Amino acid sequence: WPGFLQSVRGLLKPGGRFLLKEVEGDRSWKHAKALAQEWVMVSLLGRTKASGGMVLKPRVDGVRLLRDAGFEVREVVGLGEGYTTPHLLYDAEAR
């Protein structure tokens, strides 16, 4: 995350908005399902590419990483209600 977020921050002027939808690592059954789905797509079926080290971060870690990269986190919205994946939407502004 740090390298990616710093790259994004470098593309934005101060005040620029960054919206990031990510799966939350909340240790729920939805979290386990997302990890299993990734394993099937990468390792078993070879349909997508990945390093094999997928880690889903808790919400507090995502907020901290965004702040460390130079963003002000305006809002974090849970999008998982009614779905089988615990998605979050981070709304951040470049400082």
Contiguous uncertain segments of 5+ residues = none
Shape descriptor reads globular
Number of strand segments: 3
Strand order of the largest sheet: 1-3-2
- Count of DSSP-assigned helices: 3
Distance between the termini: 18 Å
- Give the H and E element order: HEHHEE
Strand content range: 15-25%
The chain-level structural class is: alpha+beta
* Oligomeric category: single chain
Helical content (DSSP H or I, runs of 4+): 25-40%
Molecular structure report:
This protein has 95 residues and is α+β, with helices and mostly antiparallel strands. Helices cover 38% and strands 24% of the residues. The chain is built from three helices and three strands, in the order H-E-H-H-E-E. It has a three-stranded antiparallel beta sheet, with helices on one face. It starts with a helix and ends with a strand.
Summarize the model shown:
The chain has 3 helices and 3 strands, in the order αβααββ.
List the helices and strands and how they pair.
Layout: H1 2-11, E1 17-23, H2 29-44, H3 59-68, E2 71-78, E3 87-94
Antiparallel strand pairs: 1-3, 2-3
